[in-house]
Design brief:
This protein is α/β, with parallel strands linked by helices. The chain has 6 helices and 5 strands. 49% of the residues lie in helices and 13% in strands. It comes from Chionoecetes opilio (Atlantic snow crab).
Length: 140
Amino acid sequence: MPFNYPFPPPLPPHLPSRLSGVRVCPSLSTGECQAVMRNSTVLVNSSTSENMSNAILEAMSLGTPVIARDIHGNTSLITHGQTGLLYSCPEDFIRELERLLHDSGLRDRLVTAAKEQVTRLHSLRQEKDLLMSILEQAMQ
């Protein structure tokens, strides 16, 4: 399974020898990044602390399934087994990745539910309306 990792040059000297099977690419434009994400098998979010991840939202909207660490910011976007998969430790990650890779029905259900959720809860219109509401309240 190819693994693409955007990494700004220059690479640390020890890194290339440790990346067997990983393709390191330079920084990508938004369009290039979305194309890579759209064509990826899965988006993995391994953050140990993060608020709502735009990368997760982008992957969900592009139809790329997500496996993410079970932290508050990620659980605000992902319902385990419904809109993505969550893990707490390396063993959980391996198990969830294997489930996703071997169960196309699961993959299809996750992608469909995630896209519906992003459309329903995170559209540009909803973001704009929420921001306008906050600004109006702040001005009162």
